[in-house]
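#lab-general

N.A. 3:47 PM
ok so I finally got the sequence cleaned up, no stray characters, all 444 residues accounted for. can someone with queue access submit it? mine expired

B.Y. 3:52 PM
send it over

N.A. 3:53 PM
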Amino acid sequence: MAFEGLSEKLQNAFKGLKGHGVLSEADIDNAMRQVKLALLEADVNFKVVKEFVADVKEKALGEEVKKSLTPDQAVLKIVNNELTELMGGAGSKLTYSPRGFTVFMLVGLQGTGKTTTAGKLASYLKKNGKKPMLCACDIYRPAAIDQLEVVGKSVDTPVYTMRDCKEPEKIALYAMKEAELKGFDVLIVDTAGRLQIDEELMEELARMKKAIKPHEILLVVDALTGQDAVNAAEGFNEQLGIDGIIMTKMDGDSRGGAALSTKKVTGKPIKFIGTGEKSDALEPFHPERLANRILGMGDMMSLIEKAEEAYDEEQAARLEKKMRKNQFTLEDFLEQIGQIRNMGGLASIMKMLPGVSGKVKDADMSQGEKEFAEFEAIIQSMTKEERKDPSILNSSRRKRIAAGSGKTVNKVNSLVKKYNEAKKMMKQMNKPGSKISRMLNGLQ
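B.Y. 4:20 PM
back already:
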C-alpha cells in the first residue's frame, strides 16, 4: 500500500511531541530527525528532504507554535501544509483545447504502463463527458498495436491504427483528421518508449510534437522505480517539455518517494495516479488529500466521492426502511458487501477514515476482506427462503450450506451469530428516544 511505511514513521515522530505545554528546540530537532530519516527511507530526493525539514523546523520554532495550546497539533499542521506544497499544492487538472478538439500525447520509458494508462485515461474522460479516440503510434514494440486494440475494446473506445506506416507523426496526423471527422473531441496518442532516454527516442517524440502540436504532453512513470522515475521525469521535461505526470503502480509502492519528489525536482505536477489493474483505477492526484492520508488524518473527500460513485439511492432507501422495521435480511447483507466492493473494498475505505489510517494493519484488513468473501460464499449457497429467514437454519441446513460453499459449519454459525447481533443492535437503535432513532426521524 502506498506510503504505508512512511505514514507509520511520520506518525510515530509526532507522538513524542504530545503532552508538551511548550516545545523546546531540542523537541523539534528530535522530531525533525525522525521525519528526515522517514523521508529518506521512503526514497525521497535528498535535496528535497533537506529543504523540507529546514522549512518545517523554521516554522515550528515560530511564535504560532509557541503560543498554541496544543503545540504538537500546530507542528502537525505545518508538516501537513508543507507536504501538500511539496506535492504541488492544489491538484492540477487536465486542460482542454479551446477550439473543442484536444490531443493528449503520452510519453515515457518502456515498462511504465503507457498503453494500459491510455485506456484508463480514455475511461476517465468518458466518465467526464468526453468522447475519446486512441491512436497507436508505437511502431517498434512487438504486439504494441494489438495490445492497445485490446485495451481500447475493454473500455469501449475506438483505436486508430496504420500497421504498415513507419512514421509515427504521420499516423498521429491521420488519426487527428479521422477523429475530428467522426465527431470525437479527444485524441490520446500512445507513443513508443525505450529502456532509457536516448537521442533517437527524443528526436522521434520531438517530430511528433511539432507535427500534431498536442495540447498536453503527459509523462507516464512507474512509482516502483523511485528516484529513477524522478530522474526520467527531469530528463523528459528538459529535452521534450512535458505538461504533467501520470504516476502508475502507486498501489504497489509502499515508500512513495517518487510522488513526494517529482513536483519539486521537475516543476511539473502529477495529474493522475494509477491505483490498480482495472480500467477505472486511475485517480486525479490531490496533494492535500494524500498529505492527510500520510499523516493519519484520513481522506474524507475521496471516501465521499467513492461512496457517491457506488451509491444506489433506491437500495439505500429500501435498506433504511427495512432497518426501521427491523427486517434486515441476509440478502440485504449481501447487497452491502457488494457496495463495499464497489468502493474499493474494506482496506480502501479504512485507509480514508480519520484516526484509523496507519493504526489498522494491512494484515487485519486482509482478514476482514477474507471474512467478507467467506460470508458472501456462504450466503450465496443458501436458498432464497433461508436468506430471508435465517431462523430456519437447523443443523442439516447448515451442513448443506457449509458443503455447498466450501466452508466449515463453524463459519456458517459465525455468520448467523454476527447477523443476529447486528439485528439486535438495529432493534436497540430503533427504540423510541434512541439517538439513532431521533437522527433518522430528523431526516424525514
